[in-house]
Specification:
Distance between the termini: 28 Å
CATH topology of the largest domain: Aspartate Aminotransferase, domain 2
Order of helices and strands: EHHEHEHEHEHEHEEHHHHEHEEEH
Strand order of the largest sheet: 2-8-7-6-5-3-4
CATH superfamily of the largest domain: Type I PLP-dependent aspartate aminotransferase-like (Major domain)
Amino acid sequence: MLSGRMTPPNFWALDPNIIFLNHGSFGSCPRPVLECQQQWRERMERQPIQFFVRDLEGLLDEARSALAEFLGAQPDNLVFVPNATAGVNTVLNSLNFAPGDEIIVTDHEYNACRNALDVMAERNGVRVATAKVPFPLRNKQQPEGWTPSVNKRQPEGWTPSVYEREIIGPILERISDRTRLLLIDHVTSQTGLIFPLERLLREFSSRGIDTLVDGAHAPGMIPLNLEQLGAAYYTGNCHKWICAPKGAGFLYARPDRQGDLRPLSISHGANSPRTDRSPYLIEFGWTGTWDPSAYLSVPEAIRQMGGLFPGGWPELMRRNRDLALQARRILCAALQIPPPCPDEMIGSLAAFPLPDAETIEPPRSPLYLDPLQDRLLAKHAIEVPIIPWPAAPHRVLRISAQAYNSPSQYEQLACALKQLL
């Protein structure tokens, strides 16, 4: 059992009067990391030419190296991008698709990235094949020996199960002789499921099909080893579970696929005569004047979050997951529903189906904002997302678990839901 907040006083900048259960959307950046970012900004403004022209490339190299070590990647295979949505757009807009080519995606894909896919597909005459993965899962049994870690392979003799047919089967069934790419979440945004990525990558790789992984939530939530994972492309956020400043993400590309990629903004690197580093690093290293302080603060975020507990990052990930599972038990009891998926598919996010919305209102934000979300904040000072999924009026509630959360907060949410539903 977990109890109380375990982080130092004033470590987080969150409003103490709000129960914040939505770290998965934007989270909060620790004060020491924000202070680090401000120091980078002050250095940039003291002598901008020195900073941008003489110093920045080496500084970004150091930050990339720290992030690469955390992600289990070679630094030269990693570049910074503002966020995972930018990473997905970068890959989709870089690859050459022909009319009639197919891309597979699941119905759990994040809306922004699905929109990017649909726009590119319409422009190029590409067919999008959508695999429908149920939520809640109809069968709650996990396959023997399955684990959410990307570093463990299935045991020899592992046989298909009803559970596997619900997750992997619908995806594999969409493969055709025109399939060029799989776009797949590592951890689904709306439903908080950790997909069996290693197995899917092996299946697609054996058929000569590349995979673009939308790993927005994975870094800092679950252990990663990108080189071992072997995806052609993997993009993720640092502002979520790593708790870096907003605007820090990354794009990983295997060496044999880096020549395919161009940044969304073509800049000086496009005709650079340099030969001391790859065109991939040169082009993505400078895409125009911007504030690089979020990227440069990533190593400090990794250090600060890894220092919260004696066991470092493994202990933080374990504690967050344990708290999410405890919260799930509390909320399932309050909503009188069974767990919608096995514990093994949960990291530090968990989603719950809610009764359908009584009315469908036009969104007042580019993001979701259900009236129930407003009422929870106004009446109970609880910030938690209510997400229309798979489409309105159907909806799910999604909770997050971070080091600043405690079991009592989910108990208060459970009581509030009993009053409002």
